[in-house]
Amino acid sequence: MANKFLYPQNSATRQVVDLSGMWKFAFDFESEGDAKDYKNGIPEGIMLPVPASFADFFTEKQYKEYTGDFWYETSFYADGAWADRDVDIRFYAAAHVAEVYFNGEKVAYHHGGFLPFTVNINKLLKYGEPNRIVVKLNNELSHTTLPCGEFKTLKNGRKLTTPYFDFFNYAGLIRPVKLVITPKNSIVDITVNHRTEGTTAYTDYTVETVGKGEIQVEVFDENRQKVACVTGNSGTVEIKNAHLWQPRNAYLYTFEFTLTKNDTVYDKYSLDIGIRTVKVEGNRILINGSPVYFKGFGKHEDSAVSGRGFNLPFIKLDFELMKWIGANSFRTSHYPYSEEIYQLADREGFLVIDELPAVGMLVSTRNAVDAATAAKIKPFFEEEIVQTVTLKNHLNTLEECIQRDKNHASVVAWSLLNEPDTTGSEKAVNYFKTLFDRCAELDVQKRPRSFAHIIASQPDKCMCTHLTDFVMLNRYYGWYLLSGYEIEDGFKRLDEELSKWDKTGKPVMFTEYGTDALQGLTRLPAIQWTENYQEEFLEGYHKVFDKHACVMGEQIWNFADFQTTEGILRVDGNKKGIFTRERNPKSTAFNLKKRWDSLPTDYKGNK
Ligand code: GCB
Question: Atom 9 in ligand 1: which residue has the minimum CA distance?
Answer without folding.
Answer: 166
